[in-house]
Design goal:
Blueprint lengths: L15 H26 L1 H13 L7 H17 L7 H25 L8 H23 L1 H4 L13 H21 L5 H17 L8 H18 L14 H11 L1
Helix pairs in contact: 2-9, 3-9, 4-5, 5-7, 7-8
Length: 255
């Protein structure tokens, strides 16, 4: 089961070209949804307007400083999810993030028939299991309204759309692949449910937090630049990072 491409068996009933077209459509939906979200909320306009205004008031950073900040952003904020001070939340986020990336890449490779046929099914299962561990751990034990407010873990809000659709999609995909490997007649039903949940996941970008994975690196980079050039010196430090106040005062004095 773990070494078999679950999408290859579909060629008997579904054209590989149709599955490939579906994957391309999902990619287009993500791109279009993210663009719509940017235009609708004015995120990009606010970001660049704020950047231009701060340039005239800030200490000018050199190319080396900007490169260093970019590397710190990539390593600390993106790859290590340094924004999360709570270790449990960070681990759950990292499991889900890396699992999702591995799962999506392996899915695309298998649907388009990548020659590394022995590797991708294993990666697909590994990615799916990481998503399920991180996703269900977050959903039932870490969510603020569940862990701190004592709400029911089955209480669903619009903010939960991304993580919920992701977990449901991957769960249905795993069940479908397992049923298909056992030649179960129910595999077709779960595949249909899998496609529906996946379409909701990638088609709901304008209304979910999916696009945050593209916004957060830019916001983290801008925050580090603002701390470095002194433009945030007069703002209060985050409650969880009071040590940044001293850094801002230092840069303000240098400026």
């Amino acid at each position: 089961m773990f070494a078999t491409n679950p999408f290859a068996a579909l060629s008997a009933s579904i054209s590989p070209a149709l599955m490939q077209a579906y994957v391309v459509l999902m990619i287009i939906l993500v791109a279009a949804g993210t663009l719509f979200d940017i235009l609708h909320k004015g995120s990009a306009k606010y970001f660049f307007d704020n950047w231009r205004r701060s340039k005239n008031k800030a200490r000018q950073l050199g190319g080396g400083e900007l490169m260093s900040i970019a590397v710190q952003t990539a390593v600390v904020d993106v790859l290590a999810s340094g924004e999360f001070c709570n270790m449990r939340r960070r681990i759950a986020h990292l499991l889900t993030m890396y699992g999702f990336v591995i799962y999506v890449v392996a899915t695309i490779a298998m649907v388009f028939g990548n020659p590394m046929t022995d590797l991708w099914p294993h990666l697909w299962w590994i990615g799916a299991l990481l998503v399920l561990i991180g996703g269900y751990w977050f959903w039932f034990f870490i969510r603020v309204d569940v862990a701190a407010e004592g709400s029911s873990p089955f209480r669903v809000m619009r903010a939960d759309l991304f993580v919920l659709s992701l977990v449901v999609s991957v769960t249905l995909g795993v069940v479908w692949a397992w049923l298909q490997s056992n030649s179960s007649t129910a595999a077709g039903v779960f595949f249909a449910l899998y496609i529906i949940a996946t379409t909701v996941l990638f088609g709901s970008v304008p209304w979910s937090k999916f696009s945050h994975m593209f916004f957060k690196p830019a916001a983290a980079f801008e925050k580090r630049v603002s701390n470095a050039n002194g433009t945030r010196a007069n703002l209060p430090a985050p409650a969880d990072k009071p040590e940044q106040f001293g850094t801002r005062v230092k840069h303000a004095r240098n400026y």
